[in-house]
Amino acid sequence: MNTSLNATLPGQPHIAYSGDQLLIEGVSLSELAREHGTPLFVYSKAAMLSDLAAYQRGFAGRQAQICYAMKANSSLAILQVFADAGCGFDIVSGGELARVLAAGGDPAKVIFSGVGKTRHEMKQALQVGIGCFNVESEAELDVLSEVALSLGKQAPVSLRVNPNVDPKTHPYISTGLKGNKFGIAHEDALRAYRHAASLPGLKVVGIDCHIGSQITDSTPYLDAMDRVLDLVAEVEAAGIPIHHIDFGGGLGINYNGDKPPEADALWAQLLAKLDARGYGQRQLMIEPGRSLVGNAGVCLTEVLYLKPGEQKNFCIVDAAMNDLPRPAMYQAFHQIVPVTPRPGDGVVYDVVGPVCESGDWIGRDRQMRVAAGDVLAVLSAGAYCMSMASNYNTRGRAAEILVDGTKAHLIRQRESAFDTFALEQLV
Ligand code: LLP
């Protein structure tokens, strides 16, 4: 554990020690824990906007729409931050669309991805006039055309193509390989485009690909871009114009010394390729999620008990796999640091939660000097934590705070036990 009192933490420019206090922007994390209790998610607005600015710099002078992939963190106030900054949204359900509208997002800047859109969701999206459907199969084309015609509309569509490149990330978050359920195979794409163009309820507007998540190397992106541009050329040669090119999301963040390219540096490389192949002035779309919010958030958790053992020492905290599912699901690493460090070397612990599963761990083999009652900050918890949280073990979901400078706004109240069963009925 980092117990030194020096400045910022790696990959977390908006989270820093000042004396013996860990601050997010200008707010003390131990004070937030005292006031609101734990587990508590705390996000920095400045961190999100600075991560967004890297993309905006990268696209300066280009026609590009950034559609925040809201599955990473779909809290209304966070959507509001991105909507106010001009972003559109990449959604994957009717529920996410309802959130965008509730947060004041512009439906015309919404793109709807996902392999299993229902007729009801298609209808809902057509009625509010979303920007584009990213269609993932030929069967979906037929259904979408039918639904659009029943409303007297034409659905704007982009085909998600599967470029069959390896993003070199965790297998559960690779999406652009042949064996994945996502997208239309590269070799079937031209046929699918011809089919789409023939359907009266559809209007072909674009092409889309998304190859995976937590990608830390630019090579898979460059390879995927070549494959996608080859297809654009083929499809347009067949007389079907492609208005926009969507390169999905997937850029990784620094969890544990990972060194992904900065968004602007990645896009300098990708735009150079687009320019070289004559597509530099096309309308571009991207769907970043994690890289806009992941390192903007922490989860505060209190140490409940220290339990020394023969083989392992356990540090039992009040956050669990229902709050922070990534370690249990992907063996993911999150840094864990004290909000008020104690001097000394400490002991090696497994940091675990109260849930009744051996898979309920948050960090393994972490050297820490801690005592019961201390508050720890689990870092890089802005993406795919709260949005994947559950009520397992009838644990209410955590509260959330958005920090803006020296102000801390409560953006979601802590769920009570009653909230977790409010929709249930006795027979
Ligand atoms: N677009 C599409 C079509 C996607 O499926 C995803 C993520 C994104 C964009 C955003 O990808 P990002 O920029 O966030 O990498 N729960 C996993 C990650 C699942 C990603 C699913 N799709 C995790 O915690 O690592």
In words, what does this structure look like?
By secondary structure, the chain is of the alpha/beta class. The protein folds into 2 domains: 7-45 and 294-420, Lyase, Ornithine Decarboxylase, Chain A, domain 1 (Beta Barrel); 113-288, Alanine racemase (TIM Barrel). Helices cover 28% and strands 26% of the residues. It has 12 helices and 22 strands. The chain has helices at residues 29-36, 45-58, 76-84, 94-102, 119-128, 138-150, 189-198, 219-237, 263-276, 290-293, 326-330, 417-421; strands spanning 8-9, 12-18, 21-24, 27-28, 40-44, 64-69, 88-91, 110-112, 132-135, 155-162, 184-185, 202-208, 244-246, 283-286, 297-307, 314-317, 336-338, 347-352, 361-368, 375-378, 399-404, 407-412. Strands 5, 15, 16, 17, 18, 19, 20, 21 and 22 form a 9-stranded mixed β-sheet that branches. The N and C termini lie far apart (51 Å). It binds ligand LLP.
Summarize the structure.
The chain has 427 residues and is of the alpha/beta class. It contains twelve helices and 22 strands. The strands form three sheets. Strands 5, 15, 16, 17, 18, 19, 20, 21 and 22 form a nine-stranded mixed beta sheet that branches.
